[in-house]
Amino acid sequence: MSKRDYYEVLGVSKASSEKEIKKAYKKLAMKYHPDKNPDDAQAEESFKEVKEAYEILTNTEKRQEYDRFGHAAFDNSGFGQRQRQSGFSGSGFEDMFGGGFRQQSQGFGGFEDIFAQSRGGGRTRPRKGQDFEFNLSVDFVDAVKGAEKIIELPINGQQKKINVKIPEGIKDGEKIRFSGKGGLSANGGPSGDLLIIINIRSHPVLKRDENNLIYTSHIDMVTAALGGEVEVNVFDSRFKLKVPVGTQSGRKFKVSGKGVTSRKGVTGDLLVVIQVDTPTQLTEQQKALLEQLKATFDGNK
Protein backbone atom coordinates (compact mmCIF):
# COMPACT_ATOMS: atom_id res chain seq x y z
CA MET A 1 0.00 0.00 0.00
CA SER A 2 1.43 3.40 -1.00
CA LYS A 3 2.39 5.85 1.70
CA ARG A 4 0.41 9.00 2.29
CA ASP A 5 1.99 12.36 1.68
CA TYR A 6 3.90 13.44 4.78
CA TYR A 7 2.37 16.92 4.75
CA GLU A 8 -1.08 15.37 4.51
CA VAL A 9 -0.28 13.04 7.43
CA LEU A 10 0.52 16.01 9.68
CA GLY A 11 -2.22 18.22 8.26
CA VAL A 12 0.17 21.00 7.20
CA SER A 13 1.15 22.60 3.92
CA LYS A 14 4.51 22.56 2.12
CA ALA A 15 4.97 26.19 3.13
CA SER A 16 4.58 25.41 6.86
CA SER A 17 7.45 26.36 9.15
CA GLU A 18 9.25 23.88 11.37
CA LYS A 19 7.45 25.38 14.36
CA GLU A 20 4.07 24.74 12.74
CA ILE A 21 5.10 21.18 11.90
CA LYS A 22 6.18 20.51 15.48
CA LYS A 23 2.91 21.91 16.79
CA ALA A 24 0.90 19.69 14.45
CA TYR A 25 2.99 16.65 15.37
CA LYS A 26 2.59 17.18 19.10
CA LYS A 27 -1.18 17.33 18.77
CA LEU A 28 -1.36 14.14 16.68
CA ALA A 29 1.19 12.29 18.80
CA MET A 30 -0.91 12.91 21.89
CA LYS A 31 -4.03 11.80 20.04
CA TYR A 32 -2.62 8.49 18.75
CA HIS A 33 -0.16 7.60 21.49
CA PRO A 34 -0.58 3.93 22.54
CA ASP A 35 -0.92 4.87 26.20
CA LYS A 36 -4.12 6.71 25.34
CA ASN A 37 -5.27 4.02 22.92
CA PRO A 38 -4.42 0.64 24.47
CA ASP A 39 -4.98 -2.38 22.25
CA ASP A 40 -5.85 -0.13 19.30
CA ALA A 41 -3.77 -1.34 16.34
CA GLN A 42 -5.02 1.43 14.06
CA ALA A 43 -3.95 4.14 16.51
CA GLU A 44 -0.52 2.51 16.79
CA GLU A 45 -0.09 2.55 13.02
CA SER A 46 -1.21 6.19 12.88
CA PHE A 47 1.32 7.04 15.58
CA LYS A 48 4.12 5.44 13.56
CA GLU A 49 3.01 7.25 10.42
CA VAL A 50 2.87 10.62 12.18
CA LYS A 51 6.31 10.14 13.74
CA GLU A 52 7.88 9.11 10.45
CA ALA A 53 6.46 12.20 8.74
CA TYR A 54 7.71 14.42 11.53
CA GLU A 55 11.27 13.08 11.43
CA ILE A 56 11.51 13.71 7.70
CA LEU A 57 9.94 17.17 7.66
CA THR A 58 11.93 18.53 10.61
CA ASN A 59 15.24 17.42 9.09
CA THR A 60 16.27 20.16 6.65
CA GLU A 61 18.23 17.88 4.31
CA LYS A 62 15.63 15.10 4.26
CA ARG A 63 12.80 17.59 3.78
CA GLN A 64 14.53 19.06 0.74
CA GLU A 65 15.01 15.57 -0.74
CA TYR A 66 11.37 14.71 0.00
CA ASP A 67 10.12 17.93 -1.60
CA ARG A 68 12.13 17.07 -4.77
CA PHE A 69 11.59 13.32 -5.07
CA GLY A 70 8.80 12.39 -2.66
CA HIS A 71 8.93 8.97 -0.98
CA ALA A 72 11.24 7.74 -3.74
CA ALA A 73 14.03 9.78 -2.16
CA PHE A 74 14.29 7.20 0.60
CA ASP A 75 13.59 3.96 -1.24
CA ASN A 76 17.27 3.01 -1.21
CA SER A 77 18.22 4.67 2.02
CA GLY A 78 16.66 2.06 4.26
CA PHE A 79 14.77 4.72 6.16
CA GLY A 80 11.49 2.82 6.27
CA GLN A 81 13.23 -0.38 7.33
CA ARG A 82 15.14 1.39 10.10
CA GLN A 83 11.90 2.89 11.40
CA ARG A 84 10.25 -0.50 11.67
CA GLN A 85 13.25 -1.98 13.45
CA SER A 86 13.63 0.88 15.91
CA GLY A 87 9.97 0.93 16.89
CA PHE A 88 9.22 4.33 18.42
CA SER A 89 12.68 5.36 19.59
CA GLY A 90 14.43 8.17 17.76
CA SER A 91 14.69 11.89 17.76
CA GLY A 92 11.16 13.08 17.09
CA PHE A 93 9.25 12.50 20.31
CA GLU A 94 12.38 12.84 22.49
CA ASP A 95 13.32 16.22 21.07
CA MET A 96 9.90 17.62 21.79
CA PHE A 97 9.37 16.19 25.28
CA GLY A 98 12.78 16.20 26.92
CA GLY A 99 14.06 12.66 26.40
CA GLY A 100 11.36 10.92 28.42
CA PHE A 101 10.02 8.97 25.46
CA ARG A 102 13.07 6.72 25.01
CA GLN A 103 12.88 5.64 28.64
CA GLN A 104 9.21 4.75 28.21
CA SER A 105 9.32 3.28 24.70
CA GLN A 106 9.31 -0.37 25.79
CA GLY A 107 5.64 -1.20 26.29
CA PHE A 108 4.93 2.51 25.62
CA GLY A 109 5.35 3.32 29.35
CA GLY A 110 3.31 5.96 31.20
CA PHE A 111 2.14 8.70 28.90
CA GLU A 112 1.82 11.06 31.84
CA ASP A 113 5.43 10.39 32.87
CA ILE A 114 6.71 11.49 29.45
CA PHE A 115 5.39 15.01 29.92
CA ALA A 116 6.22 15.09 33.62
CA GLN A 117 9.86 14.34 32.83
CA SER A 118 10.03 17.02 30.16
CA ARG A 119 8.85 19.59 32.70
CA GLY A 120 10.94 18.32 35.57
CA GLY A 121 14.26 17.71 33.90
CA GLY A 122 13.98 13.91 33.85
CA ARG A 123 12.31 13.48 37.25
CA THR A 124 8.93 11.82 37.48
CA ARG A 125 6.25 14.07 38.89
CA PRO A 126 4.97 12.86 42.29
CA ARG A 127 1.60 11.19 41.95
CA LYS A 128 -1.28 11.12 44.38
CA GLY A 129 -2.01 7.74 45.95
CA GLN A 130 -5.10 5.71 45.14
CA ASP A 131 -8.50 6.73 46.51
CA PHE A 132 -10.29 4.06 48.55
CA GLU A 133 -14.08 3.69 48.56
CA PHE A 134 -16.19 1.84 51.12
CA ASN A 135 -19.95 1.51 51.55
CA LEU A 136 -21.63 2.30 54.86
CA SER A 137 -25.28 1.38 55.49
CA VAL A 138 -27.13 3.68 57.90
CA ASP A 139 -30.67 3.91 59.21
CA PHE A 140 -33.13 6.34 57.65
CA VAL A 141 -33.35 8.32 60.89
CA ASP A 142 -29.55 8.70 61.13
CA ALA A 143 -29.40 10.04 57.57
CA VAL A 144 -32.11 12.61 58.25
CA LYS A 145 -31.08 13.68 61.76
CA GLY A 146 -27.33 13.10 61.52
CA ALA A 147 -25.26 10.65 63.54
CA GLU A 148 -21.74 9.52 64.37
CA LYS A 149 -20.41 6.02 63.65
CA ILE A 150 -17.08 4.35 64.36
CA ILE A 151 -16.19 1.81 61.69
CA GLU A 152 -13.15 -0.39 61.09
CA LEU A 153 -11.68 -0.58 57.59
CA PRO A 154 -8.69 -2.27 55.93
CA ILE A 155 -6.42 0.58 54.81
CA ASN A 156 -2.89 0.08 53.48
CA GLY A 157 -2.72 -3.40 54.94
CA GLN A 158 -3.93 -2.41 58.40
CA GLN A 159 -7.30 -2.39 60.16
CA LYS A 160 -8.04 1.20 61.08
CA LYS A 161 -10.90 2.68 63.07
CA ILE A 162 -12.54 5.67 61.41
CA ASN A 163 -14.89 8.07 63.16
CA VAL A 164 -17.55 8.90 60.55
CA LYS A 165 -19.71 11.94 61.22
CA ILE A 166 -22.87 11.53 59.15
CA PRO A 167 -24.14 15.02 58.36
CA GLU A 168 -27.80 15.87 58.82
CA GLY A 169 -29.81 15.47 55.62
CA ILE A 170 -27.29 13.36 53.67
CA LYS A 171 -28.78 11.58 50.65
CA ASP A 172 -28.49 7.98 49.57
CA GLY A 173 -25.33 7.51 47.49
CA GLU A 174 -23.59 10.69 48.70
CA LYS A 175 -19.97 10.42 49.79
CA ILE A 176 -18.07 11.54 52.87
CA ARG A 177 -14.45 12.34 52.03
CA PHE A 178 -11.43 11.94 54.30
CA SER A 179 -8.54 13.68 52.56
CA GLY A 180 -5.18 11.93 52.74
CA LYS A 181 -6.59 8.78 54.39
CA GLY A 182 -6.39 6.61 51.26
CA GLY A 183 -3.59 4.76 49.49
CA LEU A 184 0.03 5.78 49.87
CA SER A 185 1.89 7.37 46.97
CA ALA A 186 4.58 5.29 45.29
CA ASN A 187 6.93 8.21 44.62
CA GLY A 188 6.59 10.71 47.44
CA GLY A 189 3.31 12.31 46.39
CA PRO A 190 0.30 12.94 48.62
CA SER A 191 -1.78 10.02 49.86
CA GLY A 192 -5.13 9.36 48.24
CA ASP A 193 -8.48 10.01 49.86
CA LEU A 194 -10.90 7.76 51.73
CA LEU A 195 -14.47 7.95 50.45
CA ILE A 196 -17.39 6.59 52.46
CA ILE A 197 -20.45 5.99 50.28
CA ILE A 198 -23.68 6.24 52.27
CA ASN A 199 -26.40 3.64 51.69
CA ILE A 200 -29.65 4.46 53.50
CA ARG A 201 -31.90 1.68 54.78
CA SER A 202 -35.63 2.02 54.09
CA HIS A 203 -38.10 3.12 56.79
CA PRO A 204 -41.38 1.31 57.49
CA VAL A 205 -43.60 4.40 57.18
CA LEU A 206 -41.41 7.27 56.01
CA LYS A 207 -40.00 8.09 52.60
CA ARG A 208 -37.95 10.99 51.31
CA ASP A 209 -38.58 13.08 48.21
CA GLU A 210 -35.73 15.59 47.91
CA ASN A 211 -36.13 17.57 51.17
CA ASN A 212 -39.72 16.53 51.80
CA LEU A 213 -40.71 13.73 54.15
CA ILE A 214 -43.65 11.55 53.16
CA TYR A 215 -45.61 9.90 55.97
CA THR A 216 -48.43 7.45 55.21
CA SER A 217 -51.30 7.41 57.70
CA HIS A 218 -53.82 4.56 57.54
CA ILE A 219 -57.47 5.26 58.49
CA ASP A 220 -60.63 3.21 58.32
CA MET A 221 -63.44 3.97 55.90
CA VAL A 222 -65.73 5.27 58.66
CA THR A 223 -63.20 7.92 59.71
CA ALA A 224 -62.71 8.80 56.05
CA ALA A 225 -66.45 9.22 55.56
CA LEU A 226 -67.38 10.93 58.82
CA GLY A 227 -64.11 12.75 59.51
CA GLY A 228 -62.00 12.60 62.63
CA GLU A 229 -58.38 12.77 63.77
CA VAL A 230 -55.25 10.74 63.19
CA GLU A 231 -52.08 10.70 65.24
CA VAL A 232 -48.85 11.38 63.34
CA ASN A 233 -45.52 10.19 64.76
CA VAL A 234 -42.40 11.41 62.96
CA PHE A 235 -39.14 10.85 64.83
CA ASP A 236 -39.45 12.86 68.06
CA SER A 237 -42.50 14.82 66.87
CA ARG A 238 -46.05 13.66 67.66
CA PHE A 239 -49.24 15.54 66.84
CA LYS A 240 -52.88 15.03 65.79
CA LEU A 241 -54.06 15.81 62.28
CA LYS A 242 -57.71 16.61 61.54
CA VAL A 243 -59.26 14.49 58.80
CA PRO A 244 -62.13 16.28 57.04
CA VAL A 245 -65.44 14.60 56.21
CA GLY A 246 -65.30 12.60 52.96
CA THR A 247 -61.51 12.32 52.81
CA GLN A 248 -60.39 10.18 49.87
CA SER A 249 -57.54 7.73 49.85
CA GLY A 250 -54.35 9.35 48.58
CA ARG A 251 -55.16 12.85 49.80
CA LYS A 252 -52.12 14.76 51.07
CA PHE A 253 -51.83 17.21 53.94
CA LYS A 254 -48.76 19.46 54.12
CA VAL A 255 -47.10 20.41 57.37
CA SER A 256 -44.64 23.20 56.51
CA GLY A 257 -41.07 23.08 57.79
CA LYS A 258 -41.27 19.56 59.20
CA GLY A 259 -39.28 17.85 56.46
CA VAL A 260 -35.57 17.14 55.97
CA THR A 261 -32.93 19.80 56.47
CA SER A 262 -30.40 19.31 53.67
CA ARG A 263 -26.62 19.61 53.97
CA LYS A 264 -27.04 23.10 52.52
CA GLY A 265 -29.45 24.11 55.29
CA VAL A 266 -32.67 23.98 53.24
CA THR A 267 -35.65 22.45 55.09
CA GLY A 268 -38.53 20.76 53.29
CA ASP A 269 -42.08 19.92 54.36
CA LEU A 270 -43.85 16.91 55.84
CA LEU A 271 -46.49 15.42 53.57
CA VAL A 272 -49.05 13.22 55.30
CA VAL A 273 -50.67 10.87 52.80
CA ILE A 274 -54.00 9.33 53.79
CA GLN A 275 -54.52 5.66 53.01
CA VAL A 276 -58.10 4.46 53.50
CA ASP A 277 -58.11 0.78 54.44
CA THR A 278 -60.98 -1.45 53.37
CA PRO A 279 -61.85 -4.08 56.02
CA THR A 280 -61.36 -7.69 54.96
CA GLN A 281 -62.64 -9.57 58.02
CA LEU A 282 -66.11 -8.34 59.03
CA THR A 283 -68.31 -9.76 61.75
CA GLU A 284 -71.90 -10.69 60.95
CA GLN A 285 -73.10 -7.59 62.75
CA GLN A 286 -70.77 -5.36 60.74
CA LYS A 287 -71.92 -6.95 57.51
CA ALA A 288 -75.54 -6.35 58.46
CA LEU A 289 -74.85 -2.72 59.26
CA LEU A 290 -73.08 -2.23 55.93
CA GLU A 291 -75.99 -3.85 54.12
CA GLN A 292 -78.31 -1.35 55.79
CA LEU A 293 -76.00 1.47 54.77
CA LYS A 294 -75.89 0.17 51.24
CA ALA A 295 -79.70 0.09 51.12
CA THR A 296 -79.81 3.78 51.94
CA PHE A 297 -77.47 4.49 49.01
CA ASP A 298 -79.60 2.37 46.69
CA GLY A 299 -82.70 4.29 47.78
CA ASN A 300 -81.08 7.55 46.66
CA LYS A 301 -80.68 6.36 43.09
Automatic annotation (TrEMBL):
Gene3D superfamilies: DnaJ domain, Urease metallochaperone UreE, N-terminal domain. Coiled coil: none annotated. This is Molecular chaperone DnaJ. SUPFAM superfamilies: Chaperone J-domain (SSF46565), HSP40/DnaJ peptide-binding domain (SSF49493). Residues 5-70 form the J domain. Signal peptide: none annotated. It comes from Vibrio superstes NBRC 103154. InterPro entries: DnaJ_C, DnaJ_domain, DnaJ_domain_CS, HSP40/DnaJ_pept-bd, J_dom_sf. One of its GO terms (molecular function) is zinc ion binding. It comes from the Bacteria. GO terms for biological process: protein refolding. Keywords: Chaperone, Metal-binding, Repeat, Zinc, Zinc-finger. The lineage of its organism: Bacteria, Pseudomonadati, Pseudomonadota, Gammaproteobacteria, Vibrionales. One of its GO terms (cellular component) is cytoplasm.
